[in-house]
Amino acid sequence: MFSVFNTFNTSALQILIILSLLLASAAQISFSSSQSNSNSGVNVWPKPRNFSWPQPQQANLLSPNFSITFPDHHKYLSSSVKRYLQLILSEHHLPLVNPSSFIHINTSAPPLLTLSVTVADLSAPLHHGVDESYTLTIPIAGGAADLAAQTAWGAMRGLETFSQLVWGDPSLVAVGVYVWDSPLFGHRGVMLDTSRNFYGVQDMLRTIEAMSANKLNVFHWHITDSHSFPLMVPSEPELASKGSYGSNMHYSPADVTKIVEFGLEHGVRVLPEIDSPGHTGSWAAAYPDIVTCANMFWWPDGVDWADRLAAEPGTGHLNPLNPKTYQVLKNIIRDVAILFPEPFYHAGADEIIPGCWKADPTIQSFLSEGGTLSQLLELFVNSTFPYIVSLNRTVVYWEDVLLDDNIKVQSTVLPQEHTILQTWNNGHNNTKRIVSSGYRVIVSSSEFYYLDCGHGDFLGNNSIYDQQTGSGTKNGGSWCGPFKTWQTMYNYDITYGLTEEEVKLVLGGEVALWSEQADPTVLDARIWPRASAVAESLWSGNRDEKGMKRYAEATDRLNEWRSRIVARGVGAEPIQPLWCVRNPGMCNTFNPVA
User: For residue 594, what pLDDT is reported?
Assistant: First the structure.
């Protein structure tokens, strides 16, 4: 075992602590004793599965010499413990609601000196399905608290929980607490698109750190698209040098390693996506001969929507009939598999637009001889899927590859044991279609989990906005409007309508930020705290012990959590005026409001 500790001088400290505590309490606003203890100002987000803090709730002082003992031969756990010790000793969080109104603060009790961390299996890798459970016991008598986990990754979740039970200046800690906790779903993620607009490495690290605080565990990195190719692939360097937005908008192998290692230190997997065969226009800068309809206007004047060349501006599909396509793509897949240790590889395969493939002369000849576009996609999948699997990867595709109305493959092409489908259309219906076919699914319904919706459309010269009536344009002007509120996200049940056996195939969910109208200046506010709402829904559910939706009491807790992560450096947007927090219940409604 190893101990991390603080060396603060403790001379006459007890008297100073008591005086400081009394002054701090007097300075804070006093709240009515009639306020529900559901928000005592001290909460854990996401709410644990089993949390016991018996009445009267009590808090003791945290020793300024507080230390954490832990197994020191796991480098990622070691990094995590050191980070959390610094946070616990320095955060001094002040809740929006004064905890002293609800919690008995016992300054005469012995302070909490130590948190002892034990891990049953230090060898378990951070893969899907790893055990993230933990138990946490903080005794009333002070002395030592105990955190026990099956794996280092569960220990990290428990460290986050402990950190949220410490607050104030001087630091107090909830005591008499017992927590047993484990996620409902093993896949809890955030997807970020870095092709349409570029994000610096620090932006991504900040996002991963916030994910870890919310017990989210998958950073799905949609790296490339038609708009730019920012990843420096060692065997194909011209893809980035010619297809990115510029030399200052690349991700080098060293950048990738930094992001992946940072993820491991925070218990977050980094899942790479190289979308193909669609969404590949940026590849044409380096390899124009393997990309169809590249750099063409996406929807020519007078052309029917069905005959457009792209789903949005930015055209280009890989040509499945060109052997060079597979030479380039296999080089990319191999290098990405080396750069990213994650066992899942996201291969995209969404939004194949018929008009783009039909614009190519070789494909025109193929079709004139009786071939179909679905056969083209099947050729592409058969030429790439086995290679990805040979690299010990499970292949993730967007649902389109199997469910698209026009261009799709037969299920026999995609063995269930090697395939996961990510759903984004038609809500529960498509989830049901996928799992009833025997496939595992990741849920990212655009109706509930898309973070970019409701901010208008990015098309220029759009006459739809030339109106004087003030009527809502397509519920916010974007294809997936309106804006998805945190309540909408929190209340979505991703296994609704499924049988017990089908539920087992739902790996979890991801919120998605597509970046047509997002970049680092709005990143934090677009993701947080709405992703926090999903984090709790996927970790412990959105219902109370009686089976009732708990969004009402979650509101106060989310206000508190949002305040805390803002103090930690995350630019999360507010969900209510501060007045609502300071006037409990006054911002609720008993009637649905349109």
Answer: 58
For residue 82, what is the domain's CATH number? 3.30.379.10
Domain range spanning residue 81?
50-181
> Same structural domain for residues 406 and 541?
yes
215 & 146 share domain:
no
Structure tokens given for 189 = 């993620």
Residue 27 CA neighbour count, 13 Å, CB half: 9
Do 412 and 514 sit in the same domain of this protein?
A: yes
CB 152 within 8 A of CB 473: no
Contact 458, 481 (CB under 8 A): no
Q: How far is CA 354 from CA 308, 318, 326, 351, in A?
A: 8, 12, 21, 9
Amino acid at 209: E
- Alpha helices of 528-571 — where are they, by DSSP H? 530-539, 551-567
- Do 77 and 119 contact (CB within 8 A), yes or no? yes
Q: What is the pTM of this model?
A: 0.93
332-355: burial string, b at 16+ Cβ within 10 Å, e else: bbbbbbebbebbbbbbbbbbbbbb
CA dist 475 and 488 (Å) reads 15
Q: Which of 238, 261, 351, 447 is catalytic?
A: 351
Q: Is the dihedral of CA 196, 296, 464, 351 positive or negative?
A: negative
The pLDDT score that the predictor gives to residue 421 is 98
Alpha helices by DSSP H, listed for 58-168, are 75-90, 152-164
Same domain, 193 and 263: yes
Mark 552-587 as b/e (b = at least 16 C-beta within 10 Å): eebbbbbbbbbbbbbebebbbeebeeeebbeebeee
Q: Is residue 237 part of a domain?
A: yes
pLDDT at 471: 62
- For residues 272 and 163, membership in a common domain is answered with no
Question: What integer pLDDT is reported at residue 221 of this predicted model?
Answer: 98
What pLDDT is attached to residue 467? 78
Contact 389, 413 (CB under 8 A): no
- Measured N-to-C along each axis, helices 253-265 and 75-90 cross at an angle, to the nearest 10 degrees, of 70
Instruction: Return the half-sphere exposure (C-beta side, CA atoms, 13 A cut-off) of residue 441.
Output: 31
Q: What is the pLDDT of residue 462?
A: 82
What span, in angstroms and rounded, lies between the C-alpha atoms of 77 and 168?
A: 26
> Within 13 Å of residue 140, how many CA atoms lie on the same side as its CB?
11
The total number of structural domains in the chain stands at 2
User: Is 351 among the catalytic positions?
Assistant: yes
Establish if 587 belongs to a structural domain.
Answer: no
- CA 267 to CA 63: how far, in whole Å? 27
Structure confidence at residue 473 (pLDDT): 59
What is the C-alpha separation between 401 and 407, in angstroms, rounded? Answer: 7
Report mean pLDDT in 10-residue bins for the chain, 594 residues.
Answer: 44 39 34 42 95 95 97 95 98 94 93 98 98 98 95 98 98 98 98 98 98 98 98 98 97 98 98 98 98 97 96 97 98 98 98 98 98 98 98 98 97 98 98 98 98 91 78 70 96 98 98 98 98 98 95 94 98 97 88 68
- 211-235 core/surface letters (b: 16 or more CB in 10 A; e: else): bbbbbbbbbbbbbbbbbbbbbbbee
